Amino acid sequence: GRIDGCSRGKGGSMHMFDRKTNFLGGHGIVGGHIPIATGVGFAIKYRGGDQCIVCFFGEAAVNIGAFHEALNMASLWNLPVIYVIENNRYGMGTAISRSTANEDVIVRAKGYRMIGESVDAQDVFAVREAMGRAVERARIEKRPTLLEMRTYRFMGHSMSDAVSGTYRSKDELEENMKRDPILLLHNMMYEDGEFTEGELKKIDEEAKATAQDAWDFADASPEPPLEELYTDILVDSGS
Amino acid sequence: MAVLTYRDALNQALREELQRDDTVFLMGEEVAQYNGAYKVSRGLLDEFGPMRVVDTPITELGFAGIGVGAAMVGLRPIIEFMTWNFALLAIDQVVNAAAKMLYMSGGQYPMPMVFRGPNGAALQLSAQHSQAWESWMAHIPGLKVCTPGTPADAKGLLKAAIRDDNPVVFLEGEMLYNTKGEVPDGDIIVPIGKAEVKREGDHCSIITHGKMILVAMQIADTLAKEGINLDVVDLRTVRPMDVEAIAKSVQKTNRAVVLEEGWEICGMGSQVVDFIQRECFDDLDAPVIRVHQADVPMPYAKNLERAAKPDAAKAIAAVKKVMYLE
Fold this sequence. Notes:
The complex is a heterodimer. Chain A is an alpha/beta fold. Chain A has eight helices and six strands, in the order αβαβββααβαβααα.
């Protein structure tokens, strides 16, 4: 909630936007942004561009109506949209087995005559390759893709959720943390002999410094002035 | 000046704006090949093609969201709901996305779009299809809400709404589509947020909007024969509301009836009365009376439906009551 934040203190942690990098949010309603991303795909087609739009959501969002409505139209109208299910197996505290009749969520793609692909998302190279295929499909074939990124959540759902919580075991969490994608990449880079332990440590330190800089920047920024309460509700319009 | 139906006035506004700006497109159920469920979009597919006049599946939430996304990247969508009753399925996109995007993005993403369609009761369509939604929509900061009651206002306000850089909820009257009125020629724009006194009088104000303007004009004729002259204030836009026009009228007449199509509780009239008691307390010679739909879901049977709706007889009784004539 600071004035120098990308949403100038108006949107919360769920509503980050950055127009100059085409980062369109940041939406706090599960699945509500799936039709919105589809609309961006519609606009790309409308203008005849070769961009695509990537839309991220959790596996729990595939059960909401907005997912179904949006994917149907994206396929029907050949829109360049990449839908990415981040399947970390829990929607808040509800395991996928307790929420989803068919846990194999990628089969949903068939219902929309869409290409679907499940990916071991702890492997960054697998993610990169699958995303590359989807981007090409969007830009060249003008077709949408559904990607399932199989992953795991290492933290609680939110600030109020303990790390392992009441709904999963510590053992399960620890077992999955052995496949932390950063750890796997680190090991691969070391074993391939491309990086020394010292170089890898340096990358780690640089990443931590970047995060610390961001933290310090946010911490130093003032709260929005009170007159900001009444700005950005409507834009002045010529009409 | 041509005499047009409300439907044709809207059609003209759509056609002219589609011609003027190629970022404008119309999307909704049956808007293209079928020419519109109420024929408001007649002929537009032929003139502008399927990329700009877009038939959708029956999927209100989905296509409202497509409009929001397209508006985020600079197109100017006009999203048609076959009726506003079906827009409830899309309310997340109207309220949580369109109305809030500018604010929660810290001013980065304006929403130049229109959500439009018929609102309010027709005849014997019963509970799920006979509802006036303006008080729901007017409650939301970040939206503008237009409720034109005449063909000229329908055309001028729709053109203003399409050119506005904010999300505009545009509530048409299903029973108004066939009504006729004079519409000025050329590129007419009715500013959003400006009421119009449709008839001058100094005995009692009747403050209304949308379809109820017809009832107000009708009773103004009837009561004029009895020597009662009504000042008919047509709000035309309920958010932002032209409170100056309300104050001016009440200061002149010292009495007011507020007439609306929707339900009583938290209705638009509550807002008007709140304003009048605060800003015009010393001007009033009588308590303000509201006329509205009975506090029931709309019944089907003809006699019950008639009993539920606000009408001329109820409005006349209200005027006579605030004038202490009965």
